[in-house]
Specification:
11% strand, Arc Repressor Mutant, subunit A, three-stranded antiparallel beta sheet, mainly alpha
């Protein structure tokens, strides 16, 4: 396999190094598009999370996105100021805030998701459809295994 000049072979043999750099390639166009809307990657995660999963409590949204709960509040403040999301008391538990997309947020989320897909298709065009599916599956498996390990580590032992 061809190796770019100047890159150390040891690093090119580390999947985490490669995944990190490929991630940055994929994020370039997305970050630029988000910046045009005054948003960053965590804002995109919140919008797509609510787009895909529907209204969620702030606590659950942070956990599902792997975001720090206190940081999420700041991201939500920005999105709420822009009229993209709203926070309302959860009717099932008045102590919790439920977050939902507003119609402008739905429209923007759909636009940003489509832009991300188009950008990724261009950035990953060197891969065949089958190779891209394999890469996606492998990365998803690693992520889900890490999520499962984190979940099992946070569950108290039986009897506590």
């Amino acid at each position: 396999m061809e190796q770019p000049a100047g890159r150390p072979p040891t690093l090119l043999g580390l999947p985490s190094y490669l995944a990190g750099h490929v991630s940055r390639i994929g994020h370039r166009a997305l970050v630029a598009n988000l910046a045009r809307h005054g948003l960053r990657l965590p804002h995109f995660a919140v919008l797509t999370g609510l787009h895909d999963l529907g209204p969620l409590s702030q606590h659950e949204l942070a956990d599902r996105l792997g975001l720090n709960r206190s940081h999420l509040v700041g991201y939500l403040d920005r999105l709420e100021e822009a009229g993209l999301v709203s926070r309302v008391r959860d009717p099932g538990d008045r102590r919790r805030q439920q977050v939902r997309l507003e119609p402008p947020g739905e429209r923007l989320a759909a636009e940003l998701i489509e832009g991300a897909r188009v950008g990724e298709a261009a950035d990953l065009a060197v891969l065949s459809t089958e190779e891209l599916a394999t890469l996606t599956d492998l990365l998803r498996r690693v992520l889900l295994a890490d999520d499962a390990a984190a979940d099992s580590a946070s569950v108290p032992p039986a009897g506590d």
